[in-house]
Specification:
With about 140 residues, this protein is mainly beta. Helices cover about 10% and strands about 45% of the residues. The chain is globular, with a radius of gyration of 17 Å. The protein starts with 6 loop residues before the first strand and ends in a 10-residue tail after the last strand.
Length: about 140
């Protein structure tokens, strides 16, 4: 037996609250007809996710006008607890000048944008959001 613990489902509100505590996630995109999972920096704007895919134009193109899967989470090996949030939604280019980024949420790190816009930033508008908590391993039996 692997000793895998059940995952406790979370509400969307819990998912958003936990996503707000992280700045790095992963996106799954299709590049050259192959699935690719990439680390990205992100910030929340309401329930939308601003993603900085980096300077590679192939990644930017793969994150434009398409359905994208996104995941972020945290795991603490010291207490064997953590969480993971998965989002599926439509990704598109975003004009940062048109968005009021919530106070206290740092802007998405990205290379120098054109004035008033950042062609390298994408917005993921969630259609599906689900998350779960890993409750930690049960106490191990003491050897006799």
């Amino acid at each position: 037996m692997l000793g895998l613990d059940p995952v406790e489902p979370m509400t969307e509100e819990e998912c958003l609250a936990l996503l707000a505590t992280e700045r790095v996630g992963r996106v799954s995109v299709s590049m050259s007809a192959m699935p690719v999972i990439l680390p990205v920096r992100f910030s929340l704007v309401g329930r939308d996710i601003l993603v900085a895919p980096g300077a590679d134009p192939r990644v930017c193109d793969a994150l434009t006008d398409t359905v994208v899967a996104f995941e972020a989470g945290h795991f603490d090996p010291a207490d064997d607890r953590g969480w993971s949030v998965m989002v599926v939604g439509w990704s598109s280019r975003v004009d940062l000048a048109g968005h009021d980024i919530r106070a206290g949420s740092p802007p998405v790190a990205s290379p120098a944008p054109a004035p008033g816009t950042d062609e390298r930033v994408r917005m993921l508008r969630p259609s599906v959001m689900a998350g779960g908590r890993f409750a930690g391993a049960p106490a191990r039996p003491t050897p006799r």
